Amino acid sequence: ARLQAPALAKAGNGNLLLFAEGRGNPRTAFERVAQNTMPVGNTDIIMRRSSDNGETWEDNISVIAGEGSGDTYGFPQVVSTADGKVILHYNKLTTTVAANGTFSYPAEQTMYQVVSTDNGASWSQPIDITAPLRDISRGFVKSSPGHGIQLQSATYNKRFVMPLLYGGTSVNVAISDNHGVTWRKRQNIGG
């Protein structure tokens, strides 16, 4: 398996949690080439842990999404909160594979959220958060690999902000003012 699209977070206990796409063995030559740039085929969201600030990493790799499914999961994005939670967003991509081995992404991807309250030892059941973040006119919505932030200003204290991509060409942010229980998109970011 190859690792792509890393996302790093520091858990409440000080452990570093490294998330990534774990890309499995390709089914076709086309898929093998495509896996160099995007999640295709059997791709899981995985996590490794370091308890010494990244000097060493545990041998154990935890599969957060996709274990044994053969489905494509990608674009891990994480935020650590002041109250010790770790919130992880990722997408499920259901690709269509043609007889010649080429594939296409769906017009819509499903975006999920899982939460850990025990420093990444266990995770909540996935919740589909796609609907409030969708913008059909701009194409599919997906999380952007990497991490989000928790604001600490007087006006927006404890607001969570996570970057979004639309159709692969447009950006926005998802925000939550209730500790990640619900999300909404903000105004479009031009450029």
Overview of the structural elements:
The chain is mainly β and 191 residues long. 3% of the residues lie in helices and 43% in strands. The chain contains one helix and 16 strands. It has one helix at 29-34, and strands at 2-10, 16-23, 43-50, 62-65, 72-80, 86-93, 96-97, 103-104, 110-116, 127-128, 141-143, 146-147, 149-150, 160-166, 170-176, 184-185. The strands form four sheets. Strands 10-9-6-5-12 form a five-stranded mixed beta sheet, with no helix packed on it. Strand 15 (170-176) and strand 16 form a beta hairpin. The longest helix has 6 residues, at 29-34. It is globular and about 55 Å long. 35% of the residues are buried. The model has no long low-confidence stretch (mean pLDDT 85).
> Structural class, from helix and strand content?
mainly beta
| Count of distinct strands | 16
The coarse overall form would be globular
Instruction: Name the beta content range.
Output: 35-45%
How many individual helices? 1
The helix-strand sequence is EEHEEEEEEEEEEEEEE
Q: What's the arrangement of strands in the largest beta sheet?
A: 10-9-6-5-12
| N→C terminal distance | 36 Å
Largest sheet: 5 strands, mixed
- Multimer state: single chain
Unreliable sequence segments: none
Give the C-alpha Rg.
Answer: 17 Å
Mean pLDDT: 85
Q: Short summary of the structure?
A:
With 191 residues, the chain is mainly beta. It is built from one helix and 16 strands.
What is this structure's SSE topology?
Layout: E1 2-10, E2 16-23, H1 29-34, E3 43-50, E4 62-65, E5 72-80, E6 86-93, E7 96-97, E8 103-104, E9 110-116, E10 127-128, E11 141-143, E12 146-147, E13 149-150, E14 160-166, E15 170-176, E16 184-185
Parallel strand pairs: 5-12
Antiparallel strand pairs: 1-2, 2-3, 3-4, 5-6, 6-9, 7-8, 9-10, 11-14, 13-14, 14-15, 15-16
